[in-house]
Prior knowledge:
The two termini are about 20 Å apart. This protein has 2 domains: about 1-80 and about 155-215, Rossmann fold (3-Layer(aba) Sandwich); about 90-155, no CATH class. The protein contains 7 helices and 10 strands. It has helices at about 40-45, 70-75, 95-105, 110-125, 140-150, 170-185, 195-200; strands spanning about 1-10, 15-25, 30-35, 55-60, 65, 80-85, 155-160, 190-195, 205-210, 215. The longest helix has 16 residues, at about 170-185. It is of the alpha/beta class. The mean pLDDT is about 95. The strands form 2 sheets. Strands 6-7-8-3-9-10 form a 6-stranded mixed sheet, sandwiched between helices. The protein has a 4-stranded antiparallel sheet with strand order 2-1-4-5, with helices on one face.
Amino acid sequence: MINFYNVTLKHKNSRGIHNVSFDIEKGQFVYLMGPTGAGKSTIINSIIKSVVPDSGQILVNNYDVSKLSENDLTIFRRDIGMVFQDFKLINDRSIFENVALPLQILGIPKKTIIIKVEEILNKVGLKHKINSMPNELSGGEQQKICVARALIKNPKIVVADEPTGNLDPSSSDDIIDLLEKESKNGTTIIMATHNYPLIENRIKHFIELNNGKVVS
């Protein structure tokens, strides 16, 4: 599903990653663990080709990520949902409009979009917020909307970069519960976190990083 082979990516202002290799199988929930600056976000960004490694090979869903053209990259990213620490919601659009956006980009009919948005908001427990604006929601609720937006296109993979970093413990647990449930349904989840106490009782698969290298 996701394979890194001796991947190195050097940054001028950060540690990057160095000779990183690992394999993630379909349906696994894998935590990328390590302190700030360990290379977690670099790995996340490499998976979605926001950055390109200096050497090594990354295979995702049998795609050689480094070789993807712009057109191929658009198709490739349709199978990936993304959740980030800073939410990235569009503040002047309603919750419905934010969650519907990925389907609108794909050209899905409006009637289908309405049904799917209501279904996914019900799944994350926020259907009653469908007409609200992002700034009317708590941080935990906004992150649930981000999860809903990531899941609405039924991705094969979800990458989550410190999705609980700005949340209280209760909201953090809710977010991880949602992602774990999706993993049990066959979606591959990669979640970066530096908060070991939050996940210590949940870990089944993990990759620990330090100074840009896999340490365990």
